[in-house]
Design goal:
Structural class: alpha+beta
Helix content: 25-40%
Order of helices and strands: EHEEHHEHEEHEHEHHHHHEHEEHE
Shape: globular
CATH architecture of the largest domain: 2-Layer Sandwich
Number of domains: 4
Strand content: 15-25%
CATH class of the largest domain: Alpha Beta
Number of helices: 13
Largest sheet: 5 strands, mixed
CATH topology of the largest domain: Alpha-Beta Plaits
Length: about 350
Amino acid sequence: MIRKIIHIDMDCFYAAIEQRDDSHLTDMPVAVGGSPDNRGVIATANYEARKFGVHSAMPSGYARQLCPQLIIVKPEMKKYKAESKKIREVFRNYTDLIEPLSLDEAYLDTTDSVQCYGSATWVAQSICKDIFETTGLTASAGVSTSKFLAKISSDWNKPNGIKVVAPGEEIAFIDPLSVKKLHGVGKVTSAKLEAMDVFTCKELRQIELVVLLKKFGKTGKYLYDLSRAIDDRKVCSDSQRKSVSVETTFDQDIIEWHECEAELLNLVSSLSRRLGSVENIRKVYVKVKLSNFAVHTAESISIGLDIKLLIALLKRLRKQYPQAIRLLGIGVRFPEERKSTVAKQLDIPF
């Protein structure tokens, strides 16, 4: 059964809202984030700023060095959440199978949708048009048969563009892609692949499964499947998600407490974006991977994304395991709910 998956990604969401609401920011390099004078971090930057190398998660002070004329606006999350809610309402006009990844992006499964004569391509075009008419903001979309391909293709024609990878085109599309484009492939994994002279998905597909399993463990099967455009992950609505997490692998192992705390605060900002307006949090947790690759977690019941509680959990882990940390992650768990019944898929054209 051919699935029809759309990935919608708003263009420079926070910065675009600020430019829309303040005419003085038109055509100016704009970023949303913390103050350069207080170790702030950039949350997002518009395309004028990106020309200078400014990007998300960059220290605001360094961003100002790259672009002296950069205008840094303090985030107004309440305003961004309100706009995100309007966008979600647009999505619901086309499908109930919506998986938000953050305030500004989401997966949609339109396999059963009868909107736009059942064409996922036309649905994506219509959604982007409706979003602009509703909010004055532009979005980009990727359309394909899996979440993996839809997400990659949504970056293809940014800003305000759509890329479709139709059934039968999957392998031709991914063959020239760098392995770094594969979801979950970070610096460590990509370095190992490059050491094997594997730089593209086509080259990765030439490696036998037994070799990948020996080199990467269970991740080897994941790499084997993605290089063949195999991704059976379902689009899960809010009520179906069990947890949401973010993590970062450091270029060099971290041992100093103040560095760990600073990285945790950056992760909180990232996780907050992914959660959007979700409030039914049951637990929060912190995960660390030590220099010896041992993984440990600490969690606690919480009614929200409690920063003080997350710091306390990190302190507990640091006290128990004082070794250097190579990876730090945080996440939330949701209350378990009954699974919704998904309508039977229809055999309709892509």
